[in-house]
Amino acid sequence: MGEHDEILDELAGLAADGVAELQRIDDLKDLGSAASRFLGKQSRLADLKAGLRDLAVEHRSTLGEALNAARTQLEDAVEVRRQHLDELAVGRRLAAERLDLTEELGRERNGHLHVITQTWEQLEDVFVGMGFTVADGPEVETDWFNFEALNLPPTHPARSLWDTLYLDSDDLDGIAAEQLLLRTHTSPVQIRTMIDAVRSGTGPPIHVVCPGRVYRRDTADATHLPVFHQIEMLVVDHDVSMADLAGTIEAFTKAYFGGDLTSRLRPSYFPFTEPSAEVDISQPDGSWLEVGGCGMVHPNVLTACGLDPEEWSGFAFGFGIDRLAKIRHGVEDLRDFVANDIRFLEQL
Ligand code: PHE
Question: CA 20 to 30 Å from 74, out of 19, 93, 144, 239?
Fold first, then answer.
């Protein structure tokens, strides 16, 4: 076998081995370096081509063809492999960037305000819309603000209308000189508001509402809670009448519940109002639910706050926020509001 045949053999092996190796490469960078190793200036192929001119003329063309054929095989193999690896890379990138728009992400569970807080805020909004400002006062009150200034002196029999939770003032290391209690209604805020207005010279006229938490020594049932919420309304001005009070309550009922529900007053008794009434609001089923009390501010109450009852008159009401929420949301049992059952609370 002459040199010429050896070279033909070598070329055949070179091409076959090269193609086989190229087919195993799975990285574009490796493919680039393999391509220059097989086909570049330093390659065996380039050497053999350079050696052509030393060969006998009659061998040159067959060897030249064989060289070209080997080169073409290797170039084709590089090209096929490059396309294949390109496709793989694109596929990988698409897979990585793929957005599955059908995927169920599971709704984020946002909390929301408790229904009583929502009701409280809605009531404030309604009264602010009617021109009232919002006032507040402490939940721990003195006997004077909660009872005495409201025309309920210590021996007044009507005190038993409020089952009161008293604080043991001895435990407070003498901080409290007076009998402390948990306020049984928001009416002491009437007193605080009138005294503040007189002292600061900002009123009357006074138009305030006061929403807040109140306490009674009561057992919880469907219509009572020992801790509940009231919204107090107080107007003090010249010559206001029971008709103004009834009109304000009806305007509130329409504004809060919409046109379908209406209110009525039933004669009643509170030491701090004269005359006094209970307020009922009609239910969607035609029955009436008591939501609170109201009346014309008693002259003794005005006097206790430093206002002259000859000059000023006032009206007030106190509504149960929880009861208003009960009507509005059709809740059967007030205790559901505080049972902390997420299945109930989520719906409101
Ligand atoms: N404070 C009374 C109660 O809680 C309600 C009320 C408020 C009555 C204002 C008259 C005027 O029972």
Answer: 93
